[in-house]
Design a protein that fits this description.
The complex is a heterodimer of chains A (about 270) and B (about 775). Chain A has 2 domains: about 40-130, Immunoglobulin-like (Sandwich); about 130-250 and about 265-270, Immunoglobulin-like (Sandwich), CATH 2.60.40. In chain A, about 10% of the residues lie in helices and about 45% in strands. Chain A has 2 helices and 17 strands. In chain A, strands 2, 3, 6, 7, 12, 13, 14, 16 and 17 form a 9-stranded mixed sheet that branches. Chain A is globular and about 55 Å long. Chain B has about 775 residues and is mainly beta. Chain B has one domain (about 225-774): TonB-dependent receptor, beta-barrel domain (Maltoporin, Chain A, Beta Barrel). Chain B has 4 helices and 51 strands. In chain B, a hairpin with an 8-residue loop joins strand 26 and strand 27 (about 420-425). Chain B starts with a helix and ends with a strand. Classes of the chains: A mainly beta (about 270), B mainly beta (about 775). Chains A and B meet through helix 1, strand 1, strand 2, strand 3 and strand 10 of A and strand 22, strand 24, strand 44, strand 45 and strand 49 of B.
């Protein structure tokens, strides 16, 4: 749970800098940076959930910084997921680079192994699906934040005691994914009641929650390695420069590729912001 | 063993009997006006270099019997000459007058002082408080740490960051001492200011290399800051009011000539304006600090000093409804010292020192209600003898013993909090050192200082200690009971330096030094943060070691008007600490070692300093050419990479011009190569989010940094009784938008594009402050 603390520290630093500079000029400018080109690398974005239709593996390659962000799929791969009994399910390519299985779903407590064969390379990775934790409620509340009224989503659930749990929460506003990961663990909160505000301060006011918006919260139960992946991504690969040493997220895949494979339990709730 | 024999041999050579009868003269050097002892005053005999007064103002000279002229000089003081006829050992206290302010012609007679050509000490920088007082600064807040960063080899960590890098070392490799007490976090307000109130500071000396044997425990530098003792002649009140802070200094005799006190306080009041504004009225942001000192002269032979520092920063953000974040942090130090003069040849100092640094964070939002506390605390004992063993040898022998207690993190939670209470294990360690060093005047123009420091760092229980598997996970845990020795690291640190003086105006010097460091600061952000973590060495974290050689050429020119210093250094560092990719240094995991990686570093460079010390125009030009690299298995494929603080060029120009009796103008300009930094080599999408792809560590550069600051001081009135002045400054005069950070993001309007964004902090910051003294 110390990750929560760390975020607050940086919030405090920002606040201090902000307060200090109130009335002074601090400025942001978009600049040109000459970046060297590197060899393209394979990216695996692989998820197996506890629900049918939730199994999807996206394969792509890294792009140059100047290129657009549009997904450029890596087609023609063989993608399969093997369960503990040794049963192998083959995924089919529905669009270039997107591999799906319509009926395959995972069971909590079971370990799954992903195998991707592409461009003559075999990539493997495994993940254990955690036990589900019930998302009790989602509510939207207006809150004073540095004397501005801000609207944030809140989630409530009870963490099961005696086991390590890792959560990733994703927010959608009117179906559009908010660009942040809310990561929580029970390091200091084992067995406690969670009632957590999803502080989200986008650079653009248009991306904030407004009254009448449909806010969907997806709570994912993930394993330790996947938590590490998202934690390290947030810390060092999201483009923010507060990290001392930018680096690639810690992957749970073999073959020196980028990305992750997560067998995760997923719950969603949608509420309308009052 | 070989080292010991060598030292023994050299020491013995000191006692070769002298042919002529010698007598010893010794005593204290003091300022006439305020009774302050004078540190580092040059005491010359018959125009030949003699000695320097020590850090307590004590000097001792052994001379042939008969008539001599003693000349004594110090920066900011009028030179004094004494004719003496010595036939037996004599105690002679010397007093110096302040430089006169009533000169008919306006000239700055900053008397010779400056760098000693004859002393074997290399890589040392000193700034007088007078030099510091004219340098224009941010918000008009004079700052000794910012001032020394204008000297070669000492690099600022950048705007909004008080950290400094000395000869390629990291920010935690500087030993910062305030009246001998280590200061663990020397910054206020997240690095915009240092903890040292320049009003309370008497002397600042920075060792970049060739550290004398009495200092140890950090790899890169020693910053030795001495507080004023307090005027024992007259009462004095001085103070100042600036844009963001006010300060007051009161000092005076308790009993004239015998004892005195000093109290200096400083507080920022930006929060007063916050309170006035509706928007921020529930937020707080301020710091204060307090320096206090008393000293007693107990007869001719003894003197006691008690000094203390206490500082605190407070930061709070309200989220309304009684919810919010708060953070406060601060240092406290106390030093009790006893000077004893056994005789004119033997001086002793005994110190009891306490240092403490802690921070507290409180968070109350929704179901989260908890406080975090972390602390490092030292009890420290020092004993040192300085033995002026003859006309050619001065020995220092001492011991130092420090007991460290580190509380890495303790969480206390409210009853209803989602976060439960927990505490990381406390860590205990006992750091001991013994040293001996001799300053040997081998020939009239050859000085050799040689010595050794033996340091022992003992890790004590109670607590769990770990063995790690190659992937960093804990393989085995061993529990130690309270007081049980986990491990002791012994390090022998040789210190050797020599100077050869060609003639009256030039000399060369060389030195070799080894340093060991057992306290390591772990930080996961680019700028220093109050919550950076101090760790003691463990069975896995080995002592950091550095070996440095330096070579210098020193020359005084145009009748001592100019002083040129050229130094080159090469330094290697072992057991450097870095963290693994994705490390969570704030985890409740006690085995912090599992988040760390270890490697080595090297740094080399050339430093040039040209100083003009005399005349209406004074100042200096400083230039550093350097390279700093690291190699750590697990980072950058194990290849050498540029350390973040690697800067190729670093230039500072500092100038002060005395326009007339009323006005003094000043300017400084700095330029340096941008820090080494990691930029992405590409990008990709994961779960609809743009993620950046990195290949090489620190392969890019921030844009070059440069900045001009201007200052002007107007003396409104100046008499012996009372003076006041206005100081103006303009920070970043030509408004250069220096990059504070560069980050990458999706374009706001077109999310299919990414862009690089530069953030700059300061543009033209004017300030005005009013200072008075009576």
């Amino acid at each position: 749970m110390f990750s929560y603390k760390k975020k607050n520290n940086s919030a405090l630093s920002l606040l201090a800098a902000g307060l200090l500079l109130t009335g002074l000029s601090s400025c942001e400018k978009v600049i040109d940076v000459k970046l060297n080109e590197a060899d393209k690398k394979i990216v695996v974005d692989a998820v197996l959930t506890d629900q049918e239709g939730g199994c999807m593996v996206k394969l792509s390659k890294t792009k140059k910084f100047e290129e657009d962000n549009n997904f450029a799929g890596l087609a023609g791969a063989s993608v399969s997921i093997k369960d503990e009994t040794g049963a192998v399910s083959q995924l089919t390519e529905t669009q270039p680079g997107i591999y799906k299985h319509n009926t395959l779903k995972g069971a909590p407590g079971k370990r799954y192994e992903l195998t991707v064969v592409v461009e003559g390379q075999t990539i493997t990775g495994s993940s254990t699906m955690p036990q589900p934790v019930h998302l009790d409620s989602v509510y939207i509340k207006k809150q004073k934040f540095f004397d501005e009224d801000e609207i944030f989503a809140n989630i409530m659930f009870v963490d099961p005691g005696g086991i390590k749990n890792f959560y990733r929460v994703v927010q959608f506003i009117n179906g559009v994914k908010s660009n942040f990961n809310f990561l929580m663990d029970d390091d200091l909160s084992d067995g406690k009641d969670f009632n957590s505000t999803l502080y989200f301060l986008p650079d653009d006011d248009k991306k904030k929650i407004k009254p009448g918006d449909a806010v969907t919260i997806e709570m994912q139960g993930i394993d330790a390695a996947v938590y590490k992946y998202w934690f390290s991504l947030d810390q060092s690969a999201s483009g923010s420069s507060s990290s001392a040493a930018p680096s690639n997220p810690v992957s749970n895949l073999s073959g020196g590729v980028l990305g992750y494979f997560s067998a995760q339990v997923v719950q969603r709730q949608t509420v309308i912001a009052p | 063993m070989k080292n010991y024999c060598f030292i023994l041999l050299l020491t013995c050579s000191a006692f070769v009997a002298a042919a002529q009868k010698k007598v010893t003269v010794g005593g204290m050097v003091k300022s006439k006006s305020n009774g302050e002892t004078v540190i580092g005053a040059s005491v010359k005999v018959d125009s030949v270099a003699g000695t320097l007064s020590n850090e307590y103002g004590f000097y001792s000279l052994t001379l042939p019997e008969g008539e001599h002229t003693i000349e004594i000089t110090s920066v900011g003081m009028q030179p004094q000459y004494f004719d003496v006829d010595l036939h037996r050992d004599t105690t002679m206290n010397l007093t110096l007058d302040d430089e006169s302010h009533d000169l008919k012609e306006v000239t700055i007679t900053e008397s010779t002082g400056g760098r000693s050509l004859s002393s074997a000490q290399t890589s040392v920088e000193k700034l007088s408080m007078k030099e510091i007082s004219n340098i224009p600064v941010l918000f008009g807040e004079r700052d000794v740490l910012k001032a020394i960063q204008l000297l070669p080899g000492i690099k600022s960590a950048g705007d909004g960051n008080s950290g400094m890098f000395v000869r390629g070392g990291a920010a935690d490799q500087n030993l910062i001492l305030l009246d001998e007490a280590p200061v663990y976090n020397a910054s206020h307000l997240l690095g915009f200011f240092s903890t040292f109130n320049s009003d309370a500071v008497k002397d600042i000396t920075v060792y970049k290399g060739g550290m004398p044997a009495q200092y140890g425990g950090r790899l890169s530098s020693v910053l030795d800051i001495k507080m004023n003792d307090g005027n024992n002649q007259d009462f004095n009140v001085s103070g100042g009011v600036g844009l963001i802070s006010a300060k007051l200094n009161v000092e005076g005799p308790i009993q004239k000539d015998k004892s005195s006190f000093l109290i200096t306080g400083r507080r920022t009041y930006a929060d007063v304006f916050l309170k006035a504004s509706d928007k921020y009225k529930d937020n707080s942001l301020y710091f204060y600090d307090l320096n206090a000192k008393v000293n007693y002269i107990l007869g001719d032979k003894d003197r006691l000093y008690l000094s203390g520092y206490f500082g605190k920063d407070k930061l709070g953000a309200s989220l309304g409804d009684g919810q919010g974040f708060g953070m406060d942090w601060g240092n406290a130090t106390a030093t009790l010292r006893w000077n004893h003069i056994f005789n004119n040849k033997l001086f002793s100092n005994t110190s009891f020192i306490f240092s403490n640094y802690n921070y507290k964070i409180s968070i109350k939002t929704g179901a989260y209600d908890f406080r975090i506390f972390s602390q490092i605390q030292d009890f420290n004992f020092k004993e040192e003898l300085q033995w002026y063993a003859g006309d050619r040898n001065t020995l220092r022998i001492g011991i130092n013993s420090i007991y460290h207690t580190i509380r890495p993190g303790e969480v206390t939670s409210g009853d209803e909090s989602t976060i439960g209470s927990t505490a990381l294990q406390k860590r205990y360690s006992w750091e001991n050192a013994a040293y001996i060093t001799n300053n040997w005047k081998a020939l009239d123009n050859l000085n050799i200082t040689y010595g050794v420091r033996l340091s022992a760092f003992t890790i004590l229980g109670k607590g769990d200690f770990y063995d790690l598997a190659p992937d960093g996970s804990v393989a085995d845990t061993t529990h130690y009971n309270s007081g049980q020795v986990v491990k002791t690291y012994m390090n022998l640190e040789p210190r050797v330096a020599a100077s050869w003086q060609f003639n009256r105006n030039s000399s060369v010097k060389a030195s070799y030094v080894r340093n060991a460091q057992n306290l390591h600061l772990i930080s996961n952000s680019t700028s220093a943060s109050p919550t950076d973590k101090w760790l003691a060495s463990t069975n896995i974290i080995k002592p950091e070691l550095s070996d440095q050689v330096s070579l210098g050429y020193y020359r005084n020119m145009s009748g001592n008007k100019y002083e040129l210093t050229v130094e080159a250094y090469y330094k290697t560092m072992q057991n450097q600490v870095d963290y693994r990719d994705g490390a969570n240094v704030y985890s409740s995991n006690n085995a912090i070692e599992s988040e760390l990686l270890f490697g080595k570093g090297r740094s080399y460079g050339l430093e040039v300093l040209l100083k003009k010390k005399v005349g209406r125009l004074s100042g200096w030009v400083s230039y550093t050419l350097s390279k700093t690299e690291r190699q750590i298995d697990g980072i950058n494929n194990g290849d050498w990479y540029n350390a973040r603080q690697d800067r190729t060029h670093d230039i500072a120009i500092v100038a002060t011009y005395q326009l007339n009796k009323k006005w003094t103008l000043s300017a400084n300009w700095v330029y340096y190569t941008g820090d080494a930094i990691t930029f992405p080599a590409g990008k990709y999408q994961v779960d609809g989010q743009t993620v950046y792809y990195y290949t090489q560590r620190n392969a890019y550069r921030m844009p070059d940094y440069h900045r001009l600051d201007l200052g002007a001081t107007c003396k409104l009135k100046e008499t012996k009784k009372w003076s006041h002045e206005l100081a103006f400054s303009l920070y970043n005069a030509y408004g250069r938008e220096n990059a504070y950070t560069i980050y990458f993001r999706d374009n706001k309007d077109d999310a299919s594009k990414t862009e690089a964004v530069k953030v700059a902090l300061f543009k033209f910051i004017p300030s005005i402050s009013y200072n008075f003294k009576f």
